[in-house]
């Protein structure tokens, strides 16, 4: 799945602890449905609950949440820009462990369009589509659109935190 793979890549790139501990990150799909477009072409959509489980995370929940929201802004923007969805669709649970770590589960509805092209040799090619580049479509400067995670943030707690 395109979006699940992109989320895993973004989390691993942005959170140094996950880069060092990739076995503590699980990205999975639950409650999926397959939706046909009803058109002549065999195009379809996957609609599913995307889940992200981070085990024994010693870092800052705020940092991890910001990375996930930044991913959603680009790859599932309805969860950010639709007022009804942003108020209730991205959920999380955390199990605070005795060793100052937490097991954290995020869950969000996700959809992914797939078109089927016929190649010259008659075989089918399946093309997974990400969301359109809404910033470009609206003429918005990319620097104003993207949420860049501040380079000095590494997701680890510091002595000045409010915990």
Tell me the total number of β-strands.
Answer: 5
Structural class of the secondary elements? alpha+beta
What average pLDDT do the residues reach?
A: 84
Shape: globular
Overview of this structure, please?
Residues 157-163 have low confidence and may be disordered. The protein has helices spanning 2-14, 16-20, 61-75, 78-81, 83-88, 134-137, 142-145; strands at 25-36, 44-57, 91-96, 102-118, 124-129. It is built from seven helices and five strands. The radius of gyration is 18 Å and the shape is globular. 31% of the residues lie in helices and 34% in strands. α1 runs antiparallel to α3. The protein has a domain at 2-33 and 51-111. Strands 1, 2, 3, 4 and 5 form a five-stranded antiparallel sheet that branches. A hairpin with a 5-residue loop joins β4 and β5.
